Amino acid sequence: MPENNRRIRVGIDVGGTFTHAVAIDTATFTLAAEVKVPTTHRAKEGVACGIIASLHQLMEAGKIEPDEIILIAHSTTQATNALLEGDVAPVGIIGMGKGIEKSKARSETNVGDIELAPGRFLKTYHRFIDTGEPLNPDIIMKTVAELHDEGARVFVASEAFSVENPANEDMVVKTCLDNNLLVTNTYEISQLYGLRIRTRTAVINASMLPKMMETANMTEQSVREAGIKAPLMIMRSDGGIMDINEMRRRPILTMLSGPAAGVAAALMYARITDGIFLEVGGTSTDISAIKNGKSLVKTATVGGHRLYIRTLDVRTVAIAGGSVPRIKNKKIVDVGPRSAHIANLGYSSFSKLPPDAKPILTYIQPIKDDPADYVKLEAGGKAFTVTPTCASNLLGIANKDNCAEGDLDSIKIAFNAIAENLGTTPENAAEQLLDKSFPKAANPVEDLIDEYQLDRNLLTLSGGGGGAMAIVPYTAKKMGLPFEIAPNAPVISAIGAALAMVRDMIERSVVDPKNEDILKIRKDAEEAVLKMGAVPDTIEVQVEIDPQKNLLRAVATGSTEFRTRDLAKSAISAAEREAIVRKSVREEIKNITCLGDISGLFIYEAHTVHKKMMGLFKSEKKQYRIIDREGVIRLQIAQGDALIKTKSNLEGALSMFIERHTDYGDAGRSVPGFFILFRGRILDLSGLMTASHIISLANAELSRLTDEDPVAVLVNII
Description:
The protein is an alpha+beta fold. It has 19 helices and 39 strands. The strands form eleven sheets. The chain has a six-stranded mixed beta sheet with strand order 3-2-1-4-11-12. Strands 13, 14, 15, 18, 25 and 26 form a six-stranded mixed beta sheet that branches. Helix 9 (257-268) crosses helix 14. The protein is globular, with a radius of gyration of 27 Å.
């Protein structure tokens, strides 16, 4: 590759209406180009047609050569849409088992038809093979033929205890593949016990294979024909990316891929450490939480049934930049769920009305069975309405520095008509509209704060999407929280796809995990992302233990290339770093100190005064902020302690540090969350339960350091 060529990461977000594509220059983190094309749901080639069209237009717009592209990643709604619309293949289940467990295995592998959405079912067929007798390809193909005759087009191999011995499942898979049949086995989808859930997850995965394979093959072929040799990646539902070969094997991991791309941008582009991310479109808003620089995930469900798949915890609400108000008895009684787009109305913000326009206010029923009191305005041959975007413009919230700026004169004309009907001022009418809008966003935000025990003193509301300014600032004001709008908010999901990290997760059922279990799952997770092209020195692995579920989990992330941005050019001064830290501490500061620098991660300790009961009770505590050279806060600890040593002096000191912060109560020992800083990285050990686990994993991670390398340990005292 020529030395002076740019290094470009391409992100493509396949939305319901448009497919957005961006090119990011990795040296500057700036957009080299951005385009959008209509999403091609109904094209013969499906959404792949729009993906390829957007890629070609992007390369033309940015004058990008094929060899300048180092990665292409795209999000997709295809898996979700397939489930919602029932566009899936019927599945033949080959259940297996032996001995006393045979009867139970027969029952649990026969999961029946699965309801994907109201009135839409995934059809399954079932056969059972007694594996007490040796399995062979002839038996397998006889079973496959019977299932095919019934209607099955893809197949699942499911055997009790295959997570311990997958040989029979592997034989079924090999036999099917040798006969050009699409197939999934359960242990490669999940390594957790629970045969019925594991089978159900594999069935849904298999049902997607024909459609997703077709898209994957077509996309990859077109990319290679364009002369692009860069890795082709797909967004996962947990906010990472995986290579296209992994998508061919586990398409189920792309569920909620679209919202996940926005959250990836919040982490990698907006650089949120602790906050709530609201991606605001025209019709709906996706809301998710970020804690300690990581997105929060949950177990996925389909049709009310639990799956062995983890997805981002995204709360989708029917309020957005284009939501239409409802007026009844001269009051705004609601805003949404219908949007201007659905109601076939324009925004007053973008309608460009003549100065003397006198809009006529009427009411419509956007969809059958809707209330017939949605606001419609007509003037100058145009049909339009007012929206949160329009209200935010009128109140000076949206301005020329963001994408929501509209024509203020047209907005005033529209709100004059609304105000006349309500018997109030245009400004008060706009406030009424936003007052009815913001609780729909605020309520799920409060739910996330409560559910995940997020510290309000650390939180920021962060907005992305084209409608961010319409919803986020007003919601933040009402909730008493700070806010920020991500740069290039309208294409935030495409940016997230471009910058997302390669990711994989392994879960295993382990009772009372030993140190060797922890080190094994860490190694396996690391190897999984290595296979997908992650650079070894960029890989980070977080291990968590869930003692209630006897579950051991490892999440590995890594980048396909070293970060090439010139950090020296973007570094800020010590005074600027301290100012950022001071601003982030929302309590009275007695003093603040920089404790040290761990390869560009600066450790700040703030002694603060915590006030309760209207200031009647006061206590002092130590807060910590880890901030990098560019001024990004990478970790926030509202109350904690710190230990800074060289590697050679750490081991004994670490044991004593952990012991000092271990609580002993009626429920036994309780270990708080620990974080280790080394060589510019933050190792999150907050998911571990014992000092032995923490020390074992720390030793493994620090093994490549020299004795004189500095290491910092921070504890989060909740």
